[in-house]
Amino acid sequence: MADSSVKKVVLAYSGGLDTSIILKWLQTTYRCEVVTFTADLGQGEELGPARDKALLLGIKPENIFIEDLREEFVRDYVFPMFRANAAYEGVYLLGTSIARPLIAKKLIEIAEKTGADAVSHGATGKGNDQVRFELTAYALKPDVVVIAPWREWDLRSREQLIAFAEQHQIPIAKNKRGEAPFSVDANLLHASSEGRVLEDPAVEVPDYVYSRTVSPEDAPDKPTIITISFEKGDAVAIDGKKLSPATLLAKLNDLGRDNGIGRLDLVENRFVGMKSRGMYETPGGTILHAAHRAIESITLDRGAAHLKDEIMPKYAELIYNGFWFSPEREMLQALIDKSQEFVTGDVRLKLYKGGVHVIGRSSDYSLYDQDLVTFEEGAVAYDHRDAAGFIKLNALRLRTLGQRKKKLGL
């Protein structure tokens, strides 16, 4: 039921058919003023039409907000996440998940700026995004009203949505009249596809679903060699050329795309309780993830590295579930960022037909000591005979257990 106290609402608006229908639905159902916010996160779409569509639907020019968030997205969200080597359920690099807190944060900022008392989004009632948007909104503005049309309206089919659009003279592109074969979400980090033709996990993903990568079979027969430079855990240069965070990720995306890198066919566990099958393309992120682990391998102490690996699943789950602005995520981030103090150096990689292969790593802060590990005899601070006592001490409890079993005849 519409809250009659809502006077102004900020809508996360893409300019597409669904959010245009939501815009008009808010106007007709809540009888409120609508402010639109469109974020450029590197999704690769022209955003001018979103402004034009909003104007066409009666939104005042001063109530249309379009912001280029690419640098902020990579610098303040993607890079901190990659310092943790975060991968949900071991493989998903969280491309959609990490974008939602930034969008929701901007919704709240615009609500404060314009005096709006509500925010709205186009996430469905079955997915994770509704949780991510709303947890962020409530964390940043506890008294905000959140309007989720897909949980409120009675438009349950594509035909009903089209009929609503026609009734309210919302322009409908020819390719939007039929049921989409799959849905797509994209930003500078990744593109995700799910639904319809992808719902049967036993069926291979059709070639036409892929948009960010060439097929590994069609990638060049000659490998591409690159060097990524890191400073305190963040990538700062490719082949010696300093780049801004967003520009660097875009360059890695190009390299990954051309070499067929970053495809993932995944059945995951949604926070809301169901399993879903999706296809993710994260070309630049896949390269960055491998390179970051490689530079950590020579600059992180064993204890620090293993502790990071232990907390990573929890950290990734917090992002996936929408808890970016939670105290526990911020506490883990402080620990992770402290670990990156000496994660500085260069990683050389070979990109070849879908694979990312580390072929070299170096750092002024390297803990790798060739004199210690060499099989050649030399003046090293390691006495082979010390290993005997080390082994006996570690075996003490195992020998005690073994003696008990022998005594009991087990």
TrEMBL record:
Amino acids binding L-aspartate: 124, 128-129
Subcellular location, record wording: Cytoplasm
Gene Ontology CC terms: cytoplasm
Key words, A-Z: Amino-acid biosynthesis, Arginine biosynthesis, ATP-binding, Cytoplasm, Ligase, Nucleotide-binding
Predominant cellular place of this UniProt entry's protein: cytoplasm
Binding site for ATP: 12-20, 39, 122
One annotated GO biological process: L-arginine biosynthetic process
Xref: Pfam families: Arginosuc_syn_C, Arginosuc_synth
Pathway(s) where this gene product acts: Amino-acid biosynthesis; L-arginine biosynthesis; L-arginine from L-ornithine and carbamoyl phosphate: step 2/3
The Arginosuccinate synthase-like N-terminal domain, residue ranges: 8-171
Residues of the Arginosuccinate synthase C-terminal domain: 182-399
InterPro entries for the chain: Arginosuc_syn_C, Arginosuc_syn_N, Arginosuc_synth, Arginosuc_synth_CS, Arginosuc_synth_type_1_subfam, AS_cat/multimer_dom_body, Rossmann-like_a/b/a_fold
Enzyme Commission no: 6.3.4.5
Binding positions for L-citrulline per the UniProt entry: 92, 97, 128, 132, 183, 192, 268, 280
NCBIfam families: argG, PRK00509.1
Family classification: Belongs to the argininosuccinate synthase family. Type 1 subfamily.
Quaternary assembly: Homotetramer.
Record PANTHER family: ARGININOSUCCINATE SYNTHASE (PTHR11587:SF2)
Protein name, UniProt field: Argininosuccinate synthase
Organism in which the protein naturally occurs: Bosea thiooxidans
Lineage: Bacteria, Pseudomonadati, Pseudomonadota, Alphaproteobacteria, Hyphomicrobiales
Gene name of the record: argG
